[in-house]
Design goal:
The chain is α/β, with parallel strands linked by helices and 807 residues long. The chain is 43% helix and 17% strand. Helix 27 links the parallel strand 24 and strand 25.
């Protein structure tokens, strides 16, 4: 019986115990059917045949049943209940198989506790419970033991006895009587029950052994349990022995060091040469390194101590030990898990970017509920100037962690990630370990900036080295070539930034959670300028708030006429130019206080750099406005088509890629196929050469998303009807006339808004991307969803015929 069983069922006390005698006449006792048995349900205790066990009975029904069995000298059935919390267990809450036992002694202790000492005899199975008695009574079927003379059974019995002897030798202070009793048992079934009853198994494990009626399987189960316990005991003894030896070794080392100091003092040796070694030893002791790394550092320190200062390796080894001792092996900052404060900081530092802020708040919430969880690898992808880098600083500020930035742009040597080996002159750890040392914390926020601009050369592929750094399953044992020992990066929160995902290798991209940052609308740019940029540039140019102000109209004019970008980087430059001009006038004494309005901008920034040319460029048939995605955000794309007398050739210009050329050919084929519905004479195609040109010819262009715009341009040309100037479109087409979905919807829609478009025509299957478009942009634009090219013709060209113009 294990310790848990003894706590739940304590042995009887002999003090002031009273034995219940069966004094009632036999005629007054309760009559039971011949195959019925009084059931004693127990918690956390399993009685095996052949064992004697004390049982605490405390429930009224159980006490009544035990007293009746004691009076009438009946046997009882000891049955384990499945739900230990049930005070009055129902029949279905009891196991089906138990042990028939006789009550050797019934004891009532001084504290009114009732105990019965039972001796197990035979297994039984419940047939049914009888409900007309004041205690548990059930009809049972005795389960006889199987023959134990088979060779396999005898072999298992021999193994079980040998293992029993092993565990008895491992246990301290085992009574000899117990060993003798075990050796005297010859029955395999009785020996298995004897061993299982004495082992420290759980009640469910013992019940499993009790319910195993097949003798061979029962012996195998008990043998498996016994082997496991033997291994546990052996490991425990080994750990105790190793701990004792380690303590003895430390005491010996301390004694020898003290003797060495005394010898050096008697010899009059100076300690100037050992000052550096002593400082390094102190630094290593304070670094709180993992045991195996500390042992490695001390070994290297011993080499340094024996090495003369003039040796070439001396300075290299000293630098190496300084790096080891200065790394934050166990230094961590405490996470600030205040969601309200973190939300306030994020809103204070950045306007908009609700999706990114929500993801950061979710990370903090998970960190609060699961502090030991792995940090995610976030990758912010978006055009320049949208705030990717500054978001990392805000995350560090919101979480209370240290922040360190590592630039990945132009890195083409694997050693810049993993470090150089110490054998090289001037070797240093890689940028990752250097960043950790700079931060001084093992759980810092590390930003890997411009990860899409990694290169590869003859010195290896840095992106391959980053696979281990950015894998939460591997970076707990990151191995820098210079350190040559593992360093745990699992607590570092890595944040990557990129302008585009195409140049990031697939395996590396798979390790990161990509969060796209869209470009800003005009209203968002104005809010960012008012909240952040004006104040920052005013202070940068040495101006006070009362000396120079830029009106809201001037800010909008700068956004519309002098910048055309997804981010706000150029906007900040132009605002800085305005403040520099004001600073020059104030510093020279020409003015004391200035207010810059929209009318003053041409004199400061020059003439307008951008203007809307939609009406001019779409006033003729054959010109359509498409939408394109670029690595720096979305842009509008004009498709121009013209026809001249010829033999039906298709001419494509404008540095178009193969996919875009195929889109133009598919668009022309589709126009020919629908010539009847478009009211186009078929002979026009045979007598005309069609020229499709995409302006900005110096810029390469490719992709299938201009298919709809090319079809509309060709249809407009052949129908001699102009395209509505306030429409822009995107989408791939098929030869069946279907409009297929494309990517970059968010960037393209924002580009259309910046260009003054009022209606955007998108594939119907891209409606799922509408949620990603900022709410301000959705309010200012009208969206038309295209299923076929007929929808595009109806919306872009309409029914009104234009005046006939010569071909």
């Amino acid at each position: 019986m294990d310790e848990q069983d003894r706590r739940d069922n304590p042995p009887p006390s002999a003090d002031n115990a009273a034995v219940i005698e069966a004094t009632q006449p036999r005629s007054s006792r309760i009559a039971l059917p011949p195959d019925a048995l009084i059931i004693v349900p127990v918690r956390n205790l399993v009685l095996f045949p052949g064992l004697v066990v004390p049982i605490n009975v405390g429930r009224e029904a159980t006490i009544a049943g035990a007293q009746e069995a004691a009076r009438s000298s009946r046997q009882v059935g000891v049955l384990l209940q499945q739900d230990v919390s049930a005070e009055a267990p129902r029949p279905e809450q009891l196991h089906e198989i138990g042990t028939m036992a006789s009550i050797v002694r019934y004891v009532t202790a001084q504290d009114n506790e009732h105990y019965i000492v039972c001796q197990g005899h035979q297994r039984f199975r419940i047939i049914e419970f009888l409900g007309r008695y004041p205690f548990y009574v059930a009809r049972v079927q005795p389960l006889p033991e199987a023959d134990d003379k088979a060779p396999e059974v005898q072999a298992l019995l021999l193994q079980l006895k040998q293992r029993s002897n092993e565990i008895l030798e491992l246990l301290p202070q085992v009574p000899r009587e117990l060993q003798g009793a075990a050796q005297n048992i010859t029955s395999a079934s009785a020996y298995a029950d004897f061993v299982a009853g004495l082992m420290d198994l759980t009640a469910e494990e013992k019940q499993d052994v009790l319910e195993t009626l097949d003798l061979r399987k029962r012996l195998e189960k008990v043998l498996n349990f016994l082997v496991h316990r033997i291994e546990v005991l052996r490991l425990s003894q080994k750990i105790n022995q190793e701990t004792k030896e380690r303590m003895d070794e430390r005491q010996r080392e301390f004694l020898l060091r003290e003797q060495l100091k005394t010898i050096q003092k008697e010899l009059g040796e100076t300690e100037e040469n050992n000052a550096e070694v002593a400082d390094l030893a102190e630094a290593i002791a304070k670094a709180n390194m993992p045991p195996e790394i500390e042992a490695h550092a001390k070994k290297e320190l011993g080499r340094l101590q024996k090495m003369p200062e003039a040796a070439g390796e001396y300075s290299m080894l000293r630098t190496y030990l300084e790096w080891l001792s200065e790394l934050p092996w166990s230094t961590m900052t405490e996470d600030r898990i205040d969601l309200a404060e973190a939300s306030r900081i994020l809103d204070e530092d950045h306007y908009g970017l609700e999706k990114v802020k929500r993801r950061i708040i979710e990370y903090l919430a998970v960190r609060k509920l699961n502090p030991d969880g792995r940090s995610p690898i976030l990758c912010f992808v978006g055009p320049p100037g949208v705030g990717k880098t500054s978001l990392g600083q805000s995350i560090a500020r919101a979480t209370g962690r240290k922040f360190v930035r590592v630039s990945m742009g132009g890195v083409h040597d694997e050693a810049e990630i993993r470090g150089h080996r110490r054998t090289y002159i001037g070797a240093l750890p890689g940028n990752i370990i250097q960043g950790i040392r700079k931060a001084g914390s093992r759980n810092c926020v590390m930003m890997l900036d411009e990860i899409d601009k990694l290169g590869a050369g003859v010195h290896g592929d840095p992106s391959a080295a980053l696979l281990e750094v950015l894998d939460p399953e591997q970076n707990s044992t990151f191995r820098d070539n210079y350190l040559a020992v593992p360093f745990d990066l699992s607590k570092v929160m890595f944040i990557c930034t990129a302008n585009m995902l195409d140049t990031i290798p697939g395996p590396l991209r798979d390790r990161m959670e990509v969060i796209s940052l869209p470009g800003y609308t005009e209203q968002e740019k104005a809010q960012i300028a008012r909240r952040y940029l004006l104040k920052r540039q005013r202070e940068a140019n040495g101006l006070k708030p009362g000396q120079c102000e830029i009106s809201d109209a001037a800010v909008h004019a700068i956004i519309q006429d002098y910048t055309r970008e997804a981010g706000v980087r150029n906007l900040e430059r132009e605002i800085g130019g305005v403040f520099r001009s004001a600073a020059a006038r104030i510093a020279s004494g020409q003015a004391q206080q200035l207010r810059i309005d929209a009318a003053d901008l041409p004199a400061i920034l020059g003439p307008k750099r951008f203007e809307s040319e939609l009406a001019m460029r779409t006033s003729l048939p054959g010109v359509a406005t498409g939408l394109a995605w670029t690595p720096v955000g979305g842009d509008i794309l004009f498709i121009e088509a013209s026809r001249t007398p010829g033999a039906g050739r298709l001419i494509l210009t404008g540095q178009l890629g193969d996919v875009m050329r195929e889109s133009a050919q598919a668009a022309l084929t589709l126009v020919k196929a629908r010539s009847a519905s478009l009211d186009i004479a078929p002979e026009i195609f045979e007598k005309s050469d069609i020229h499709v040109h995409v302006p900005a010819g110096a810029i390469p262009k490719d992709g299938p998303s201009a298919g709809v715009a090319m079809f509309i341009a060709l249809a407009s040309l052949m129908m001699n009807r102009p395209v509505r100037h306030d429409r822009a479109m995107t989408g791939e087409i098929s030869l069946r006339g279907l409009v297929l979905p494309v990517g970059g919807i968010k960037e393209k829609v924002l580009a259309a808004l910046r260009a003054g478009i009022t209606t955007v025509m998108l594939p119907a299957r891209n409606q799922r991307d509408l949620e990603e478009i900022p709410e301000d942009a959705r309010r200012q634009l009208q969206f038309v969803w295209l299923t076929t090219v007929d929808d595009a013709v109806r919306e872009a060209i309409g029914e009104a015929a234009a005046a006939e113009q010569p071909a």
